[in-house]
Amino acid sequence: MMTRWHLLHLPVRVADEARAWRRVQEVLFSWPEARVQGLVLDHWWPRVLYLPVGEGVRIDPMGIYVSHRGLAMPRSRRWFQREALKTGQWLGRLVRDTTGRELGRVKDIVIDETSLRITGLVISRGLLRDLLDGAWLARWSSLTWDGDGRMKW
Fold first, then answer.
1. CB–CB of 13/65 below 8 Å?
2. Exposed (0-12), middle (13-18) or buried (19+): which is 78, by Cβ within 10 Å?
């Protein structure tokens, strides 16, 4: 298991090169399927590079390995902002228990590195409580949404 934060700090390497080629700037998710759709690599102005995950892309805790550079596609900044909004709507979102009491906010997204599916959310209860007691991990399968779109655990 790894978190979105962990993916954001991994180097991207081309198969036969020793040096890192790029770094991950953002992770894009496909929400109906709850899985990683692709990675946005660091900027080269005025565009970004979009790397769809799939054939030719391998992710492990030490880095992201790409078979060749041609897999990364240039995209406009406007496209990046629109796609990044979809991921951003989950971070900081309020989580409640089944009675409606506030539990905390979504701090990070947990991903299974083999299937690239979302397996859980890290729930923060504030800096002090996280330092004293630790943040909570909510399994994706245990989350529900009510009619108003509020997340419950």
1. yes
2. exposed
Rounded Cα gap, residues 68 and 143, in angstroms: 38
pTM of the shown model:
0.84
Per-residue pLDDT tens for 91-114?
Answer: 888 998 888 889 999 999 999 988
Domain 94-152 has CATH 3.30.60.50: no
Domain boundaries, the chain: 2-88, 94-152
Predicted local distance difference test score (pLDDT) of residue 87: 76
Residue 30's nearest CA partner among 65, 54, 9, 60 is 54
Return the closest-CA partner of residue 33 out of 108, 118, 120: 118
Instruction: Give the integer Cα–Cα distance in Å for 24 and 98.
Output: 36
Q: Domain 2-88, what fold?
A: Photosynthetic Reaction Center; Chain H, domain 2 (3.90.50)
pLDDT at position 37 over 90: yes
DSSP 18-60: SS--EEEEEEEEETTTTEEEEEEEEEETTEEEEEE-STTEEEE
Helix or strand run (H / E) with residue 108: strand 102-111
pLDDT tens digits, one per residue of 49-77: 999 998 999 998 889 999 999 999 999 98
